[in-house]
Amino acid sequence: MHVFVTGGTGLIGSAVVAELLGNGHTVLGLARSEASVLALEAAGAEALRGGLGDLDVLKEGAARADGVIHLAFANDFSSADALARAVAEESAAVATLGEALVGSDRPLVTVSGTPWVPGRVSTEADPVPTDGPVGGRGRTVMGVLGLAARGVRSTAVRLPRTVHNEGKGGFAGLLTGIARRTGVSGYPGDGTQRWPAVHALDAAVLFRLALQGAPAGSVWHAVADEGDAVRDIAAVIGRRLGLPVEAVPQETYGPLGPIFATDQPSSSARTQEGLGWKPTHPSLLEDLENIMER
């Protein structure tokens, strides 16, 4: 299968590209910079120059492919306005990709976040939130899944709060970056809230499986660790960086503060049974041991 991938040079995307190439597929990757072009070509993929806001380029990429995996996101969490702009850009991009595939029965695999359900572990049957700081992403994904009725084999892979590799990535990576800047390995609230996690190499396998055979309109959870307490995550970061570990104000995390403070464990039991996906790589707490000391 010739696959058009957006976000193919990021921590998750590079793992997905390698997974696809290693299993007989070819890849056309969206590249917004010369560095991205070189990275894709070095991996063995073809590059298509453009960014997530270049809708005509996205149409071209989808037209040239047998299937699409969408991973790109601006990841600008500096302010509520910046986050809103990133969500709006992604929404327009995904709508464009979807329309390009209507009536073709080709796969479109998009990315989402695992939902949180008060008082219990969330499952694939639970809806994603469509309000709050990233509610727009939930509405976008619902639109993608709706394309199943229009001849698109659309599916969503829900990622947990931390997708990690070599101690980097996701919400845990943000905690590490803030700890380096502030000199404190902090956590919001009492730190007992739980975040799910998955290794990027395990997530990449699930994206491939969804591309190859997931039914139209289906939802899958790329969750290996159902939920690590944020205080435990901060403790490993603090130990690796030689920093004190303590509670900090929720406002420390800007527009993500309310999400950081939420208990949000999640399960992948249905995914593992339905697609035969089995995570095999290190857990988050194990992988954080790769954080380099300051």
From TrEMBL:
Species, as recorded: Dactylosporangium darangshiense
Top-level lineage group: Bacteria
PANTHER family membership: NAD(P)-BINDING DOMAIN-CONTAINING PROTEIN-RELATED (PTHR48079:SF6), PROTEIN YEEZ (PTHR48079)
SUPFAM superfamilies xrefs: NAD(P)-binding Rossmann-fold domains (SSF51735)
UniProt-listed InterPro entries: Epimerase_deHydtase, NAD(P)-bd_dom_sf, NAD(P)-dependent_oxidoreduct
Domain NAD-dependent epimerase/dehydratase, residue spans: 3-213
Gene3D superfamilies to which the protein is assigned, alphabetical: NAD(P)-binding Rossmann-like Domain
Protein name per UniProt: SDR family oxidoreductase
